[in-house]
Amino acid sequence: MGLTENEAREIAEEVAREVFEGIKSRQLLKIIKRKIRQRKPVLASRYDLKRALFALGPAGYFFEDFLARIFLKLGYLVQVRKLIKGECAWHEVDLVIIEEGGKKAVVEAKFRTNGKGKVEIKEALYTYARLLDLQKAGFEQGYLATNTRFTTEVISYAECCGLKLLSWDYPAETSLAQLIDRNKLYPVTLLSGLSSRMKKGLLEAGIILVEELAAFDPQLLSEKGLSEEEISKLKKAAQKTLNQNH
After folding, report:
1. Domain ranges, ordered by start, for the chain
2. Residues with Cβ < 8 Å from 233, sequence gap 6 or more?
3. Contact yes or no for 153/171 (Cβ under 8 A)
4. For 9-26, how does the pLDDT look when each residue is reduced to its tens digit (9 = 90+)?
5. 50: Cβ–Cβ under 8 A, 6 or more apart, which residues?
6. pTM over the 0.90 mark
7. Cα distance between residue 177 and residue 198, in whole Å
8. What does the alpha-carbon distance between residue 4 and residue 215 come to, in Å, rounded to a whole number?
9. How do residues 79-130 score in pLDDT, each as one tens digit?
10. Domain at 188-244, CATH class
């Protein structure tokens, strides 16, 4: 989480005094988050970040849009949900990313609504096969991206064939968690008090990031069914999130 060893020990000791026989894991997590938030609000938000990525669902389109924001921040040109003809078949590609020198890569996004399912080898094989068929269309690199994790078999295969991977915690220095934190690319679903209706309105308005909400025209939000009071609260929460995570 980024705490020092002493801070972690102090929190563990405080939490130990509050737990009881039969405590639910969600209750334990709530206590831990409260203790961390009292010391370092920025670090507490990291617990919420993983949940916020799951909340971009249930469909995977908004996760693809979120990935597009990340690659844009990294300096790529990005195209989302493209139909491209390969040598042997047509392909519905989640993202196309293009480096400054013109090198093109295809990105396959695998979204999960919870942390139980890892991305397995068949999806890595599929992604690499797609890249091979798209090479004559000018694609030189393939990516497999997910909001959860990869099996060790996937990582081993990717290292062997040159497929690039991006997950919650992989690669260690440029994982989703690291990229989000480093560039303040927080999804709007990170905001507390966000109802399903409000989330739907924001995402349908094309607002994927907290920073986009902070700068968005209130009039356009009202057209998505949000009240003036809701818009005001959301914008304040967005600014607070950006400021506390500065």
Report:
1. 5-54, 61-183, 188-244
2. 193
3. no
4. 999 999 999 999 999 988
5. 115, 147, 168, 177
6. no
7. 25
8. 35
9. 999 999 999 999 999 999 999 899 999 999 999 988 778 999 999 999 999 9
10. mainly alpha
